[in-house]
Design goal:
By secondary structure, the chain is an alpha/beta fold. The chain has 6 helices and 15 strands. It folds into 2 domains: 72 residues, Translation factors (Elongation Factor Tu (Ef-tu), domain 3); 136 residues, Nucleotide-binding domain of ferredoxin-NADP reductase (FNR) module (Rossmann fold). Helix 5 runs parallel beside helix 6. It is globular.
Length: 254
C-alpha cells in the first residue's frame, strides 16, 4: 500500500514504523504497526500480509481513501555502519571479498523482508550489500526482484529446496560468513520470526559481527506509554515501540 504523506515521509528512516488505524471508526480499537517498506519523496509504502481482522479491513482500502496515521515512530537502523569499499560478497570461495572491505548483510525471513528494502535503497554503496531471503517455499519468496533492481547481490533459501539454498536462511547466513574474509568489518541487519532472530544473534556472536534486528511485538499505543511491548534486555526491560523496534541483537535476553 502506498500512502501520500509528505510530512511523515520526509522524516521517515528505514527501520522506523507507522501506527495505522485500519478503518475510520473506533473498531477495531487498536492501531496496527507497519514498518516503512519504501520511502519515496512525499510518500511511503507498507508491505503487509492479510492475517486478521485489522489487515482484512486495510486490504479493503482503495485509491483516494484517507487513513489515520501516527508516525514516524521508533528508532531505525544505524545506516552509518553500512558504508564500505568496492567489491561484492559472493558464495564462491575464489571470489571472497578482499581484506579491508565492509559488507552490509541483510537477512529476512518471510514478511520480515518489509523494512529491509527501504534500508537497501538508503545504502550509499550497494555494491557491498548482500541480501539473504528465506521462506518456506518459492511461492513465499518476497521482493527478490526489487532488491536485484538495486544492484545488490541476492541469495535465496527455502525450507523445501524449491528455490535457492535448501534449508533455513540462517544456515545460508553461516555459509556466507564462512566464506567472507573480513567478518569483523561486516554488519548484519535482520528482520523475521523471533526464532530466526535468536539464531542470527547466536551466529553473529560466534563470528564476532555486530547484528541489528527489527523486532515485532503486540503494540497498543505505539509511543511507549502502555508498556505492552516490553522485552527483556541486558539493561532491563525496554519497549519495542519506543526503544526499538531495531535493537542490537546481543542486547536481547532470548
Amino acid at each position: 500500500m502506498a500512502v501520500s504523506t509528505p510530512g511523515i515521509a520526509r522524516q521517515a528512516r528505514p527501520g522506523q514504523f507507522v501506527h495505522l488505524r485500519c478503518q475510520n471508526s473506533i473498531e477495531p480499537l487498536l492501531r496496527r504497526p507497519f514498518s516503512f517498506h519504501r520511502i519515496k519523496g512525499g510518500s511511503f509504502e507498507i508491505l503487509y500480509k492479510v492475517i486478521g481482522r485489522g489487515t482484512n479491513l486495510l486490504a479493503k482500502r482503495r485509491k483516494g481513501d484517507t487513513i489515520d496515521i501516527l508516525g514516524p515512530l521508533g528508532n531505525g537502523f544505524d545506516i552509518q555502519r553500512t558504508s564500505g569499499s568496492r567489491g561484492s560478497p559472493s558464495l564462491e570461495p575464489s571470489r571472497a571479498q578482499p581484506r579491508g572491505e565492509r559488507t552490509a548483510i541483510l537477512i529476512a525471513g518471510g514478511i520480515g523482508v518489509a523494512p529491509l528494502l527501504a534500508l537497501a535503497e538508503e545504502l550509499t554503496d550497494r555494491r557491498n550489500c548482500l541480501v539473504l531471503i528465506g521462506a518456506k517455499t518459492k511461492k513465499r519468496i518476497l521482493c527478490a526482484k526489487d532488491f536485484k533492481k538495486l544492484g545488490v547481490k541476492v541469495h535465496l533459501a527455502t525450507d523445501d529446496g524449491s528455490r535457492g539454498y535448501k534449508g533455513f536462511v540462517t544456515d545460508l547466513l553461516r555459509k556466507v560468513l564462512l566464506l567472507t574474509v573480513n567478518c569483523e568489518l561486516s554488519s548484519i541487519y535482520a528482520c523475521g520470526p523471533k526464532l530466526m532472530l535468536k539464531e542470527v544473534a547466536r551466529i553473529a556472536k560466534s563470528f564476532r559481527i555486530v547484528a541489528y534486528g527489527s523486532l515485532e511485538e503486540n503494540m497498543a499505543c505505539g509511543i511507549g506509554a502502555c508498556l505492552g511491548c516490553a522485552i527483556k534486555t541486558r539493561d532491563g526491560y525496554k519497549r519495542v515501540c519506543k526503544d526499538g523496534p531495531v535493537f542490537n541483537l546481543q542486547e536481547i535476553q532470548w
